[in-house]
Amino acid sequence: MAKRNEPVRKSVKDTLEDLLAGHREAAFSGPESALKYLRRTFEAQASLPNAVKAVAYDLSGEAQAQCGHWEACTESVALALGYLPDLEAAFPHEFRRLLEGLSCFERGIQAHSELGDFHGALELCERAIALGLGAHYAAKRDSLQWAR
Predict the structure, then answer these.
(1) Global pTM?
(2) What would the pLDDT profile of 17-28 be if each residue is shown by its tens digit?
């Protein structure tokens, strides 16, 4: 009887690197192409690690914002933020760098503002401030104080 080949198991880090490389290549053709790549990735990889999903949904939110798909952007941002604990667990030493590279807070604030959900934008500002992501989030929060 022939011995069956074991499936190749990639590490979370390798999976993330593959996602970023594929996205970078697809994004050269514009945000619609990037979204198409990410949709195909989600469909093809039912077992995509949750930490990688955080980054994938962040990239989706960025592309959706570039296309003006504000409702879809807010959904992607919410999903990306939901997977942040998984990202931190998978990359404890690189989490801060990865977190600072995400655009989900910026794009989420923009999308909520575009949709007239200023309370949602304020909540994202507060969350970014709590994570220590920069004084510009305090400035954004201050400019949205009227919505309280």
Answers:
(1) 0.91
(2) 999 999 999 999
> What Å distances lie between residue 47 and 32, 44, 52, 53, 92, CA to CA?
24, 9, 10, 10, 21
Cβ atoms 74, 97 nearer than 8 A: no
Rounded to an integer, what distance in angstroms lies between the CA atom of residue 85 and that of residue 99?
11
Distance CA 108, CA 58 (A): 10
List Cβ neighbours of 90 (8 Å cut-off, separation of 6 or more): 12, 49, 50, 51
User: Taking residues 54-78, what's their average pLDDT?
Assistant: 98
Q: Are 121 and 112 in contact (CB under 8 A)?
A: yes
